[in-house]
Amino acid sequence: MIFRVTPFLSTLNRPISSRSFFRTMTSVAEFKQAPHKLLVIPGPIEVADEVLYANAHPSMSHVSPDFIPVFGDCLRMTREVVLSTEGQPFLISGSGTLGWDQVAANLIQPGENALVLHSGYFGDSFTECLETYGAKVDQIKAEIGAAVSQEAIESALKSKKYRLLTFTHVDTSTGVLSDAKAIAETVKRVSPETLVILDGVCSVASEELRMDAWGIDVVLTASQKGLGVPPGLSILVASLRAIKVFESRTAPVGSYYASWKKWLPIMKAYESGKTAYFATPPVNLIYAYHQSLSTITKKAPSLEERFELHRAASKQIKDTAAALGLKQLALDPAFAANGMTALYFPEGVSAGDVLPKLGAKGIIAAGGLHAEIKDKYFRLGHMGITAVDGQRGDIQTVTTALKEVFAAK
């Protein structure tokens, strides 16, 4: 079974309010989330019981002596997840989109050049954000289902000086995985002064990512995907090189809320065991994030094993789809994400023919997002506990449903 009802609740002869429920629970072992359909969109994803339990922590002061070390631990464990020893984490209330604003407000000045690698919808969005702050943006646009080639990147970098280059590690609209290591190597060889910015909203904790070893200057992400936490936390790690670029800027930071002038002292204070105030952090969400990070960094499976488990889950989904005659958006397996899959509908089939049937089988999938082909495909997420916790049986549930829905197509 996918969904479980706690024995504690099943013994009650009358309804119990959520407030009474959380007050009555004495340990996470007793807490089981309510029955629900299996959420396999590319984020938000399924969240573990212990993470939701942590999110239900009693309301706390953000300057409480009990909360300060929790926030500090989250900063340190965030480094571990992106495999960085000295990067500066920023944990700020907001969505992954706030990461774009942090980059655009703090690392590039009006009139400077930015190069955006476009592998789907989110390349356009990052471009718009950078232009909002006055950057001059060039795009290299890959065909749908492909990533930008290293040759195209090298040619662009030789054409002019770029303050930074951005790419979406996994573009959620296409399921395309860009080669972060190769991109960083090309930038370092051709234009070493250019900052490498990785949008990892749909990749952190589900795709292999080695920030320090690969020479990534910024990794930005969000809580609701591979990190397995409810939405609402913008997470970013900046290299020391990126921090130096920020500190040497001559133009004022173009944002109030996203300014590292405001946030850097906050992060440094909490990590040193002290407190400082700019804006109230999402205390309960930080507790949930702490629980998830503790599982990822300190328990089995290890982070390296998680990468492999995501690859295995991805293969199972993609092999099933291929056997059913479903074509991926990704044109080459090398471009295919491990935390999600984007699949074209068969000829003559639409989202209205498929998504409700999956829903009737207890599965929530996502429709298309890329504007040029929005009605021609659908998307499945398989990251976090869905990929890592085999006892849940989520991957088998999804593959069984795909077979039942598409076998007659």
UniProtKB/TrEMBL annotation:
One of its GO terms (molecular function) is alanine-glyoxylate transaminase activity. Its cofactor is pyridoxal 5'-phosphate. It comes from the Eukaryota. InterPro entries: Aminotrans_V_dom (IPR000192), Aminotrans_V_PyrdxlP_BS (IPR020578), PyrdxlP-dep_Trfase (IPR015424), PyrdxlP-dep_Trfase_major (IPR015421), PyrdxlP-dep_Trfase_small (IPR015422), SP_NH2Trfase/AEP_transaminase (IPR024169). Keywords: Aminotransferase, Pyridoxal phosphate, Transferase. The modification N6-(pyridoxal phosphate)lysine is found at K225. The keyword Transcription regulation does not apply. Its EC number is 2.6.1.44. One of its GO terms (cellular component) is peroxisome. Gene3D superfamilies: Aspartate Aminotransferase, domain 1 (3.90.1150.10), Type I PLP-dependent aspartate aminotransferase-like (Major domain) (3.40.640.10). Residues 52-371 form the Aminotransferase class V domain. Substrate binds at R379. Belongs to the class-V pyridoxal-phosphate-dependent aminotransferase family. This is alanine--glyoxylate transaminase. It comes from Mycena alexandri.
